Amino acid sequence: MDIIPYLPPLQASLNMISACLIVAAYLSVRHGNKRAHKVYMVTALMVSTLFLLSYLYYHNQVGYMPFNGQGFIRPVYFLLLFSHIILAVVILPMIVLTVVFAFTERITLHQKITRWTLPLWLYVSVTGVLIYLLGFHLYPPGA
After folding, report:
1. I need a surface site. Which of 9, 92, 108, 133 has the fewest CB within 10 A?
2. Is 117 part of any domain?
3. Which 3 state secondary structure label does DSSP give 106?
4. How many structural domains does the chain have?
5. pTM score
6. pLDDT band at residue 143 under the 50/70/90 scheme
7. Residue 140 three-state SS
8. Is 36 part of any domain?
9. What angle do CA 111, 113, 115 make, to 5 degrees?
10. How many Å apart are CA 76 and CA 40, to the nearest integer?
């Protein structure tokens, strides 16, 4: 069975789940529920890791996927894609540091870096879904 066609929708789903978990974790900690915050964040980390592994496998198998949109949407798509890729690279070590600070109970450092990690991770997750919708549904490959 060829799993390649199933990976893009799976990856978009994982990105959306990750975004929801990050928001739930934020709301939990704001309401003082540290245990729920930790569960949501560990789950978001696992979901994002699964996304990254499936993404790397997919692009190793498929390679570059051209975008078929034309006109105004083309530069919009590439601006979105470019910012998504750059921030995805930037966010990875930030997530690692955020997790290390949390698990070593360096809460002040954890809170400082989280002010940047949270919105960037959320942006990368949500734009991943938008890129999928644009590249596979609104302007599908081969169309």
Report:
1. 108
2. yes
3. coil
4. 1
5. 0.93
6. low
7. coil
8. yes
9. 70
10. 32
